[in-house]
Amino acid sequence: KSKMLAIIVVKIIILTALFEPSWGFIITLDAHESECFYDSANVNDMVTISFEVMEGGFKDVGVEISGPDGDVMHHEVRETTGSLTFSAMKKGRYKLCFDNEISTLTPKILMFQFHVMKPLDYYANPKKRRDDVLEQATLQTMLNQLSARLGAVRVEQEYMHFRYRGHLDITDSVQDRILVWSVFGPMMLVITTVLQVYYLKRFFEFRRVV
């Protein structure tokens, strides 16, 4: 039993250590507002950034990605969706900024993911990694890829759920309007008919003159 318990503990430690931190957020950008996010990476780390504007106006925002020295790596004034993967050339903090400068009134709701993955030799070399448990670097690479793909699936599911809620609200609003008009229309028709009959009757009424 103690041996089985030790194996289970080791597996838990391995699974905990395998997944690198990733950011997956939904944010709201008001008109003329900008937001920046940061994550640290070492040389040769793989940085993956993906985003999609879900609601607001023409569903476009400004995007800028810059390196540790402030050098701009990617800049677009108007983008709806995008995905960028690159190998870090310098050690330091990488910055991801979104802005809604082009909008005068409409806020934008967007979803994005900021993911940093270590290179293969980081896990293959015991001097570089942070633990003494991982011995299979290939397994680490496969699990990192699986983690990134599962993160993308989760982001897509959250986006689809958000769109479903929006469409459901629109459907409920349309149904309420149809119900109101289905009651209001016949009532107006009945009232108009009664008034027409009344005025025609008064118009053709024969009055006796005494």
Q: Outline of this structure?
A:
With 210 residues, the chain is α+β, with helices and mostly antiparallel strands. It has helices at 2-18, 120-124, 137-203; strands spanning 22-29, 34-41, 46-55, 61-66, 72-79, 81-87, 92-99, 108-117. It is elongated.
List keywords for this structure.
3 helices, alpha+beta, four-stranded antiparallel β-sheet, 8 strands, 210 residues
Q: What does this protein structure show overall?
A:
The chain has 210 residues and is of the alpha+beta class. It contains 3 helices and 8 strands. The strands form 2 sheets. It has a 4-stranded antiparallel β-sheet with strand order 1-8-3-6, covered by helices on one side. Strands 2-7-4-5 form a 4-stranded antiparallel β-sheet, with no helix packed on it. The longest helix has 67 residues, at 137-203. The termini are far apart.
Roughly how much helix do the residues carry, as a percent range? 40-55%
Q: In which order are the strands of the major sheet placed?
A: 1-8-3-6
Strand-and-helix sequence, N→C?
HEEEEEEEEHH
Tell me what portion of residues adopts beta-strand conformation.
25-35%
Which structural class best describes the helix and strand composition?
A: alpha+beta
Distance between the termini: 119 Å
Shape: elongated
Query: Which blocks of ≥5 consecutive residues have pLDDT under 50?
Result: 5-23
Rg over alpha carbons:
31 Å
Number of helices: 3
